[in-house]
Request: fold
Amino acid sequence: MPHATDDAEPQAVASAGSLPTVPGSHPEAGIGRGTRRRLVLAGAGALLALAVLMAVSHYAYDALRAHYLLLHTVAEMFAVVIAVGIFVVVWYSRRVIEGGYLPVLGVAYLCVGVLDLLHTLAYKNMGVFDASYGTNLATQLWVVARQTEATSLLLAVLLVRVRLSTRLLLPVYAVATAVLLASIFAWDVYPTCYVEGQGLTAYKRISEYVICGVLVVSAGLLYLRRWHFDVEVLAFLVASTLVTVASELAFTLYADPYGPWNFWGHALKVVSFYFILRALVLTAVVRPQAVLFRELKRRGDALRRANTRLETRIAERTSRLASTVKRLRTEVREHLDTREQLELERGRLFAVLRMLPSYVCLRDAQHRIRFANEKFLELFGGPHRGRCYSILKGRDQPCQGCPVDRVLADDVDQEWEWTDPNGRSFHAWAYPFTEADGTVLGLELGVDITERRRLEAEVLKVSETERRRIGEDLHDSLGQVLSGAACLSGALRRRLQAAEDREAEQAAKIESLLNQSIDLTRALARGLDPVGLEPEGLMHAMADLAANVADLFGVTCEFRCDEPVLVEDTAVARHLYRIAQEATSNAARHGKAGRITISLEADGNPVALRIEDDGVGLPAEPQPGGTGLGLRVMQYRAHAIGADFEIGPRPGGGTAVVCRMHQWRKE
Reply:
């Protein structure tokens, strides 16, 4: 009968569909003394009955044979009554059954009882069925009954934890039994099990062996799931299964349906059903009150143990919860202190930013100014909540390649210089800045370098003016003196040659040296002022530069200018020339270039100077010993004339230097 679950014992509680488990008699806890005594007495009684039957059958079988049909009928009817009794017990207990063992067993044994009854009526010489069936019909019904019994015993153990409905199982088993009977009586498709004059068929013997195997497996599963059963009930169930195996083995040996092996098989079947009777019917009929009160007591004990465990767990979890709350309170207090400290530091930071002599602004990914200091408002005016490209550049759209956008995208600091629409120049830096709510903004800080650029431009102008003056002095003063000396030395050489004086050769050498000095002076003067004062001077100077680089470094250097580019501002022209001179020198000396191209363009766009080479390109890191002075000088010259300067890798390899003017004049 069903019992409750006790979590304290590993699966020690039966599903209610299994048989009751007695507290204190759990299989793992040992067998009680009274239970052991009852098991020993039952086993001894069964063995004694078997011994008596075997002795009688051995010494007086001929007398028994005369009454064999009666004995067979009594034995089978005993089994039928027990089978029906099992069903009755299960049927009236179905409302309290929770598992699947008893429902399957009860319905199955009802069908087995029906099949055994038909087997009894079909037995040879009973005269109920047509004599043409012979012994085969009773044998077929026997095999079908045993197959149903073995399969159901295995299925019951497998479904011991599954809740099943007896009302559902009954029609299922009824249909299955009807199909089996139809295969014998109506369709005549069930295999022959007995042949008159020959005995049992191979199918019958193989079926008995398979039935024995299934019964052994079910007995093993009973033992493996023994915690679902009372020890005494489990012992009777296992004993019943094993005795049934012995009975089936006996039925594989007889040739005569009235022979000794057939008699012993039925005797073992009686013992098997006796054990089933002890396990189920007597337990439910003789000791129902004991089972009921035992279950109530066990369930009460289990409930008290569960309540104790629950109170212990509640106490433990309450303690852990109190500890967690205390820890969380401490963490919240620390968090609030940290937040107050951060707010204080933030206030100090913004106070410093407001007082800086440089402009400072914070802007988001949508280009909205979120903060601006006093210097920013002084320089650019307007509400500081507008768009940065509108306030700083006077544009309607965001700037292409904005350094602050790169800061927000890559989280990498940026540094650059820019010029506003009013001509003011700024050196700016940008850094990622995280707000208290986790929003990442771009912090831009800029210094007005307009005056510095003006002074730098003045320095460059003075430098170029001084270069030009020195070049003019070399050309006009020293060049004239050297030219006069060369004329005098030429006249002296001619007079000495006419007088056939030996000093004429020395005079010729002096004349040659003076001419070389004149050429060097002119070259120096041209190098100090390569562009000259003419608007087309830049183009001629670039062509000469390409030729000089090719001769000096042994590389291919080409100058390209598809249409005349006239630059009237000599300062701009000289700066562009110096940038090209420095870029070609770097490409030939450091870039190991084999081909250098100088391009000057002004086709509908601002004047653009481009120097490209096929060398090794820019190094990933600064080279040891290098100062980068040449690059800084080029950037300085470009900014001095208000040009954009770019240097980077060239598609296909090498380096590209681009200097692009914003204002120019073309004729």
About this structure: The longest helix spans residues 288-355. The two ends are 115 Å apart (CA to CA).
